[in-house]
Amino acid sequence: MTGPLDGIRVLDVSRILSGPFCTMLLADMGAEVIKVERPGDGDPARILGPKVGEERAYFISVNRGKKSITLDISKQEGQRLFLDLIPHLDVLVENFVPGTMSRFGLDYQNLAEHNPRLVYASISGFGQDGPSATRPALDIIVQAMGGIMSLTGEPGGPPIRPGASLGDSTAGLFTALAIVSALWQRQTTGRGQYIDVSMLDCQVTMMENAFSRYFATGEVPGPLGSRHPAAAPFQAFRAFDKYFVVALITDDTNTWQRFCHAIERPDIGNDERFITNTNRVKHLDTLTEILNSVFAKESAAHWLSVLTAADIPCGPVNDIKAVTEDPQIRHRGMMTAIPHPSDGAWQVENTPFRFSDAITGPTGPSPKLGEHTRSVLEEILGLSKPKMDSLKEKNII
Predict the structure, then answer these.
(1) Correct CATH for 234-238+243-316 of 3.30.1540.10, 3.50.50.60, 3.40.50.720, 3.10.129.10
(2) Pairing state of beta strands 55-56 and 67-70?
(3) How far apart are CA 92 and CA 179, in angstroms?
(4) Which residues are catalytic?
(5) What percentage of the chain exceeds 90 in pLDDT?
(6) pLDDT of 262 above 90
(7) pLDDT tens column, 89-142
């Protein structure tokens, strides 16, 4: 079997995280991804995070299974080589500040003349138009502006950035979805198209019911810690040793009473303050105080065992080490080793989707800077060794 995107060739001109996360997903689905990097220093992610052998953890995490070529697209000769590659591509992904690719003569309008079937995706902080379009943006900027930091943390506390770069990764995820949609549409139209993805727009989309709650009530949502605004109990609780979570989102009286019996508090099962979900949300502070006193008496493992036996949704609050050891995570193969020719094997997260008739997942290690420059330029453009030696001397490749 092959990957679902087998035969698709992607030129990845992106850096750091949003674009590389997108092209990582495409590579995991079988696309050939050729990463274009600046000669000498390459993707800035190559110097971020702890070392893994000769590489860096940040770069490894989102660049597995790709090829790397070095090409200076700020120079005219580099731009000509770039244009020569375009007819041989299906997809191009870039995440420069809007206007950068146009200054190099490598914008969609120009490249579409060389390849009308090209799907060209641009990821930027704020999109290609609007009053903020040309502003630079990093993950925390769009998380702050998109609202998620205003909802994260404890009531009355400072805004909190979630522990993962959701501004970058969600933009990469949405871009990958848009690209495969455009490739499908190309099957009908015969034409590629331009895709404009704003990291800020993606954050707004990910806020789901926060906006609908605001429009419905006129009240601005605020942070609730781990609690849910419309369900209870739906939060983290502290056992005597560590935290775990419980999630009830139902008005079913039997489920609520089953929960109460499991925690040996049948007396609150018929308490009018708690018998419906609406009432539990209304009296959440009182309910939380009761449950905190109950859960503090036993270990998290005890409560998880008791609640699981009662068919109550619950789970541990895992740290990263615990995630890698979780039996369900291990069973699903979500931690996998990638063989590397000089550094042994690298542990990385797997792709989260499974196909019944296609192979998905990491196909190889992240590349060394410029590792595939000569093989790619020879295979695709037929460049000779003397020609490539000359380009190398001029620091074009």
Answers:
(1) 3.30.1540.10
(2) unpaired
(3) 9
(4) 228
(5) 96
(6) yes
(7) 999 999 999 999 999 999 999 999 999 999 999 999 999 999 999 999 999 999
